[in-house]
């Protein structure tokens, strides 16, 4: 692969973080978070579809330039196709008419943000150049922290946000402590790496993987950490299917004695898993009777995070 093509591939793989300004910090604890399915039918409350979610128009949305928003939609979709995509494929994926998509792609090609080789488009050299200069992890933590703190206050438990990495791992990027004196220590979470099969965030990540990638990332022998750790592959695969269907995951005494965690996934407009929201609590205080109410609180927080990370999507319906 020539150096130019390598830059395009690298930009494609990291695009959703660069565009969304998602920050990263070392290490991630794995607490239960549910992977969202590729279709819009799962976890619809905070899943943004490719055409956007209809809603009330805020002032910022009214001022948004629709052509720019459509261009962003096409760039996001194009970033998912390392070998390129045709205008017909891109238009269908984002819900635009073919003439509209062609017109926008032509403008992006003139500015160097996309390249065209025969009938296929790829991310362009100018896009790769700007992506190398950007720090995709600089600004988001400060903006999402109030949402995490609000959830931690209402749930009275520790809240974390983790993001998946290209290498199939997880990074904890932000956390907020609950109001209880005794609880899960935020400082103890940062910098830690937890086994995917015995963590809630890990189960979300595993459930989001294809069968081939799952076989690649899941060892034959699953280590036990407590008496409740799932160490049988067949049992774990069954639970991962439940996670896909219900839209959240529960970790109950599987990684550490007395720890219970709930997690929900966050997806971008293209349907890719970009973050996992988790609430961690000691079992003696957080019984299963609190799970439904906490999941509702997490749902509301996740919707706020989606609006913050992709403000142009809520209330914007792509027009062909």
Q: Could you describe the 3D structure shown?
A:
Residues 126-311 form the IclR-ED domain. It comes from Streptomyces daliensis. Pfam families: HTH_IclR, IclR_C. The chain is α+β, with helices and mostly antiparallel strands and 320 residues long. It has two domains: 3-20 and 49-135, Winged helix-like DNA-binding domain superfamily/Winged helix DNA-binding domain (Arc Repressor Mutant, subunit A); 140-308, 2-Layer Sandwich (Beta-Lactamase). Helix content is 42%, strand content 15%. It contains twelve helices and eight strands. It has helices spanning 3-20, 59-63, 66-78, 87-94, 98-110, 125-133, 140-155, 186-189, 200-208, 211-217, 233-246, 291-309, and strands at residues 85-86, 114-117, 120-123, 158-164, 170-176, 249-252, 259-267, 273-282. The strands form two sheets. It has a five-stranded antiparallel β-sheet, sandwiched between helices. A hairpin with a 5-residue loop joins β7 and β8. The radius of gyration is 20 Å and the shape is globular. It starts with a helix and ends in an 11-residue tail after the last helix.
């Amino acid at each position: 692969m020539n150096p130019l093509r390598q830059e395009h591939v690298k930009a494609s793989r990291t695009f959703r973080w660069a565009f969304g300004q998602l920050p990263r910090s070392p290490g991630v604890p794995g607490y239960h978070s549910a992977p969202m399915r590729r279709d819009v039918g799962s976890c619809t409350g905070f899943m943004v579809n490719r055409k956007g979610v209809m809603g009330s128009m805020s002032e910022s949305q009214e001022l948004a330039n629709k052509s720019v928003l459509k261009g962003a939609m096409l760039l996001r979709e194009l970033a998912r196709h390392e070998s390129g995509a045709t205008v017909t494929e891109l238009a269908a994926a984002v819900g635009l008419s073919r003439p509209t998509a062609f017109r926008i792609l032509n403008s992006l090609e003139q500015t160097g943000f996309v390249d065209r080789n025969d009938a296929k488009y790829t991310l362009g050299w100018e896009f790769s150049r700007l992506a190398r200069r950007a720090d995709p992890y600089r600004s988001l933590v400060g903006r999402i922290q109030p949402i995490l703190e609000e959830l931690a206050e209402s749930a009275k438990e520790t809240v974390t946000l983790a993001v998946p990495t290209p290498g199939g791992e997880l990074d904890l990027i932000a956390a907020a402590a609950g109001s209880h004196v005794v609880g899960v220590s935020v400082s103890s979470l940062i910098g830690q790496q937890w086994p995917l099969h015995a963590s809630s965030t890990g189960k979300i990540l595993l459930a989001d993987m294809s069968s081939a990638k799952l076989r690649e990332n899941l060892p034959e022998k699953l280590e036990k950490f407590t008496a409740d750790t799932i160490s049988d592959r067949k049992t774990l695969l069954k639970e991962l299917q439940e996670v896909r269907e219900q839209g959240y995951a529960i970790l109950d005494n599987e990684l550490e004695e007395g720890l219970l965690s709930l997690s929900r996934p966050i997806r971008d407009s293209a349907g890719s898993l970009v973050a996992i929201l988790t609430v961690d609590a000691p079992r003696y205080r957080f019984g299963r009777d609190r799970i439904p109410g906490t999941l509702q609180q997490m749902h509301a927080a996740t919707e706020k995070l989606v609006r913050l990370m992709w403000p142009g999507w809520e209330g914007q319906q792509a027009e062909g």
